[in-house]
Amino acid sequence: MYKMKRIAVLVLAVVLALGAVPISASADEVTINVYNWGQYISDGTDGYIDVNAAFTEATGIKVNYMTYDTNESLYTKLKTGGSTYDIIIPSDYMVSRLIEEDMLEEINFDNIPNYQYVDEAYKNTAYDPDNKYSVPYTWGTVGVIYNKNYVDEADIGSWDLLWNEKYADKILMFDNPRDAFAIAESMLGYSYNTEDTAELEAAAEKLKEQKPVVQQYVMDQIFDKMIRGEAYVAPYYAGDYLWMLDENPDLGFYFPEEGFNFFIDAICIPKGCQNKEAAEAYINFLCDPEVSGQNLDYLGYSTPISEARQYMDPTMAESDIAYPSDEVLSNSETFLALSSETTQLMDSLWLDVKTAAADEGGNSGTLIMFAVVAVLIIIIGVLLATKNSKKKRRANRGKAN
Amino acid sequence: MRSKLLAAPYLLWMALFAIIPLCVVLYFAFTDFYTGAFTLANIIKLADYLPIFAKSVWLALISSVICLIIGYPVAYYIAGRSPLWQRLLYMLVMLPMCMSFLLRTMAWVAMLEDTGIINSVVKAIGLQPLPLIRNDAAVILGMVYNYLPYMIMPLYTVIMKIDRSLIEAAQDLGCNSSQVFRGVILPLSLPGIISGFTMVFVPAISTFYISQKLGSPGTTLIGDVIESQFKTAYNPNLGAALSLGLMVIVFICVAIMNRFSTDDDEGGVVTL
């Protein structure tokens, strides 16, 4: 027994030692872990710049690039730990939540000389008032993308297109609480930053009403579905619309009259970063006007660096969807960080929306309950029957012996 | 002593990756998200998800039954061929499993979509596209397709092992082929049916990817809810409670299924 214990300890020690060995191949090779939204960096397709490759070429620092699809999943990933990232690119409200929960490193701006090119309008923002933790990457707006071949021009203009039964099963919806609630709040005339329980509950009701016409709750799948015409209507980020338009010229876009979200996505360094200087070099590289221009030319999102626009395709640089007029923008509202109680309430209301049975065919829920009860009764019946027969068999066997 | 020593790596593995995680799940399920204090709130909240639990059980049951109906004749057929054919056919059954499960499901999406392969053909003929995807039937199809090999494998193993002389004896005693099947083959293949049913039912009840890709927004299964608790809603405590609930249901179901087996099982078939 004592020997066994010793072996067990040995095995455990070996397992732990193996786990502690770093995976990096050699010591002098620096690699940074970049965690970004899906489809959110120019990757060299169609002759555009490959940002990560260009960065490695310029600095010798390797990039290990990974993606997420919502701010909430980024947050969960950071919170549950287990993996370390050097660069993350959350949206405004998530930046302030991360600052509040002390999950970001202060950036050393001496290492980011290109920060001087960032427009004043994107400095000292509400989410990072002291400009300590973030550098803007892109900004943009949310609107409605629709397929001109199938959607009647008379129906567009408002968010209610997403509730229109005419296009049932052809409507996509955001798969994250903040963006989804913002749409319902627009329609009900509430602020996107409301902390009022009744208002949030009303918004959730509104989203439940929409559920029967929704084809799916999606994020990046929207690209594929809208381009192929699998769905006709979807709310999404204006920059992504411009990207999709290249693939399917039948797609249209509008800013809903009730108002829409204006957002800034910012580059941050999370706590636990392994290589802060390399991460800052990466941020500096992204802020280079030429890189930013070429990168966002491909992405379709708007650049916070005016200098960068000269490196863009002129149609992109002058697009009134990527760079709407001040008049249009006056109808927009930014997300602010909500209190953690409100965030939790919104999360649970959102889960309610997503798990609520869609009212297709009336009372399918009751039907299911009935069926389950019926099956249970049958199972119990069979159980009793087999028990009896087993007893009988045993009894017979006993007799034979 | 010697055999104990050989089992040590496995016991250690179980302790590290099954018992300890299970304790963590238990801990989370019974504690509060913020304070970490003991609470039953998570368990009480499970009641809200009863309809989803019921729906998951229901869809998994239907899938298992369909797998049995399709899988039994296939296994029976394979078991009756010459050894060479047996190997070849068995490999064919296994072949789809060499491909990623996600990829196979995505392939079904590409086939069933409104603009997918089947509906393009339907439209080309001049008919209205069919509503093939985003309903319960599509989810069941996905489950049956993905889990059918798990039904065929144990059935085949058991049927193959049935002693031919028993069948001959039954025939000699005047049984016709349906009597042979009902009186000899079916009872002897019961362990295979039970383990096959279990091996399909257990993954089917906890599935989440299939229902997301092939189901409608209304076909949320319990696996989807658990996934979103961890992935987006960040409420691991409720997620743990839901997992615990699912585990209890699975154990009950497996226990019920095991009641069907005779107490002196022939052959060491996994029954979980």
Brief rundown of the structure:
The complex is a heterodimer of chains A (401) and B (272). Chain A is of the alpha/beta class.
What would you say this structure looks like, in words?
The complex is a heterodimer of chains A (401) and B (272). Chain A has helices at residues 2-20, 51-59, 71-80, 92-100, 177-188, 197-210, 221-228, 238-247, 276-286, 289-299, 314-317, 326-329, 340-355, 364-400, and strands at 31-37, 62-68, 87-88, 134-147, 171-174, 214-218, 233-237, 251-254, 260-268, 332-333. With 401 residues, chain A is of the alpha/beta class. Chain A has two domains: 19-138 and 264-351, Periplasmic binding protein-like II (D-Maltodextrin-Binding Protein, domain 2, 3-Layer(aba) Sandwich), CATH 3.40.190; 140-262, D-Maltodextrin-Binding Protein, domain 2 (3-Layer(aba) Sandwich), CATH 3.40.190. In chain A, the strands form three sheets. In chain A, strands 4, 7, 8, 9 and 10 form a five-stranded mixed sheet that branches. A three-stranded parallel sheet of chain A has the order 2-1-3. The model of chain A is unreliable at 17-27 and 359-366 (pLDDT under 50). Chain B has 13 helices and no strands. In chain B, 73% of the residues lie in helices and 0% in strands. Chain B is mainly alpha-helical. Chain B has a single domain (53-259), classed as MetI-like (MetI-like fold, Orthogonal Bundle), CATH 1.10.3720. In chain B, helix 3 packs antiparallel against helix 10. Chain B is globular. Chain B starts with a helix and ends in a 13-residue tail after the last helix. The interface between A and B is large, with 48 and 38 residues.
